Amino acid sequence: MAIGDRSDGVLLRKLPGFRKIFPFIMRTRTESTIYYPQRVKIGHALAWLDRANAGREKKITLFHIVLAAGVRTLALRPDANRFVVGRRIYQRRSIDLSFVVKRELSEQASETNVKISFDPRSTIADVVERVAPAVQATKRSSSSSDEKMSDFVTKLPRTATRLIFWAARTLDYFGWLPGSFIKGDALYTSVYLANLGSIGLDSVFHHMFEWGNAPFFVVVGKRKKEPVVNDHGELEAQDVIDMKFSLDERITDGVYYATTIALLTDLVENPEKLEVPPDDLPDPFGLV
Fold first, then answer.
1. pTM more than 0.90
2. CA dist 158 to 92, 114, 147, 153, 166, Å?
3. Which of 276, 226, 217, 280 is nearest to 70 (CA)?
């Protein structure tokens, strides 16, 4: 590993100065956040799901489509798979998606984080095969690594807890945080997703965490009928979901972000494109 690189990222040394200076001008993710709403027409995706799930034991859900579209988008648009730590911009070494899993569908049930790494050439079938067992294992477990760590540090005196977090942030700033710690923390991820539609809620804009290095927060809302202008210029009721994006502006520019979200939207609306691996993938480390 070259000097300046991290266990989870490679330092982008050839970025233009205009991009490198952004983390000094905007020092936190909070002040660097762009909020972007996107309505997604899902009528075609729902019809595809009916066909794809016929006779299938492990059912594909709309959220699986969103996850698979996210993996494919990050594979084809690698600039969106960057992050900022210690005033430096890094290319992430892997495609990682994190999301919340509720152990039961009730107000009393606990919830925890799941973080999964994906092969850039994953199809939607590959994503389902990776996600299903991870979710089931999490639901069966009494606690996750995040929960165990939280339980431990919050039992300590407040001064000790503050000292632990200060030490972790300092090690992270200089790129010295152990890879095992980063691997187990769901906020060190390419994208953090919240599927509010699964509990009947619509999407909201999610805040950005200063902990970790996630530059993308995506909230998926509930399925609903809304008036939409069709291809013939006529107003009709269609099945849609609203997705809300919170983005770290420092890692790439607005035009790249807009094109990236347009690609993600197209893949969710047309999931048959996710049935086969991508033909060619760009080199994510071209600016190292």
1. yes
2. 33, 27, 18, 9, 12
3. 217
Q: How many residues does the chain have?
A: 288
Mean pLDDT to the nearest integer, 95-122: 82
DSSP assignment of 217-259: EEEE---EEEEEE-TTS-EEEEEEEEEEEEEEGGGS-HHHHHH
Give the strand pairing for 191-195 and 88-92: unpaired
Q: Tokens 């989870």 label which residue?
A: 8
Domains (ranges, CATH) in the chain?
Answer: 9-274 (3.30.559.10)
Decide if 52 contacts 270 (C-beta within 8 A): no
Task: Please say if the pLDDT value at position 133 is more than 90.
Answer: no
Tokens of 58: 């492990």
Number of Cβ within 10 Å of residue 51's Cβ equals 9
Residue 110 banded pLDDT, cuts 50, 70, 90 = low
The conformational region for residue 191 under phi > 0 = left, psi -120 to 50 = alpha, else beta, is: beta
Q: How many CB atoms lie within 10 A of CB 57?
A: 5
Enumerate residues 6+ apart whose C-beta is below 8 A from 40. Answer: 240, 241, 242, 243, 265, 268, 269
Q: Can you give the pLDDT at residue 154?
A: 87
pLDDT per residue as tens digits for the range 68-92: 999 999 999 999 999 999 999 999 9
Map residue 269 onto helix, strand or coil: helix
